[in-house]
Recover the amino acids of this structure.
């Protein structure tokens, strides 16, 4: 996937055949630790959510994101390579843990460029990512899902993965109305455009 500097992207992937990718709280934490090591140095993260069989990240690319490097016979961006390293190292650990082999994730991580249009897609994507556990029926309140950045924005946790100042600047998030805006229903025809 070809990336542009200073653009907002929705990165996502899921388990091969929609299978589980997280089996315990420790798996989630290990994935986030690897994310911090391999991906975070190459971008600004605005939001994330880890679900039992998939993940979402809202990312603002930087100059570091698009630096090209050679991996085998391919030239890839530093950010794409970071995701490759993250998924490879995580899959190896899970395969060992679960006594399995083969692909854990779908072959390609998707990165959807979010352009500002009438519906303000980056802001919608931000809320969509946080609403995943609620829409899937895992929680009745967004703040009850441990593995998303939502509680960081509420000030319930001192998370350091997301650049909250960038969110305020890029998405024009209102701290005063953040909570109620987070629960606003996203129509299916609008959310489909995020993929």
């Amino acid at each position: 996937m070809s990336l542009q500097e200073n653009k907002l992207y929705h990165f996502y992937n899921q388990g091969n055949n929609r299978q589980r990718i997280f089996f315990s709280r420790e798996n989630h934490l290990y994935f986030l630790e690897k994310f911090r090591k391999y991906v975070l140095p190459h971008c600004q993260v605005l939001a994330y959510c880890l679900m039992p069989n998939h993940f979402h990240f809202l990312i603002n690319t930087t100059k570091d994101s698009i630096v090209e490097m050679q991996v085998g016979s391919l030239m890839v961006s530093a950010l794409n390579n970071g995701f490759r390293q993250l998924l490879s190292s995580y899959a190896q650990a899970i395969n060992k843990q679960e006594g399995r082999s083969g692909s854990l994730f779908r072959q390609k991580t998707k990165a959807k460029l979010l352009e500002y249009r009438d519906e303000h897609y980056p802001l919608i994507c931000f809320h969509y990512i946080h609403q995943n556990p609620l829409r899937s029926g895992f929680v009745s309140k967004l703040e009850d899902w441990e593995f998303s950045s939502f509680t960081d924005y509420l000030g319930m946790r001192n998370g350091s993965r997301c650049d909250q100042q960038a969110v305020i600047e890029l998405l024009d998030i209102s701290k005063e109305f953040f909570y109620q805006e987070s629960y606003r229903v996203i129509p299916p025809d609008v959310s489909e455009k995020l993929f």
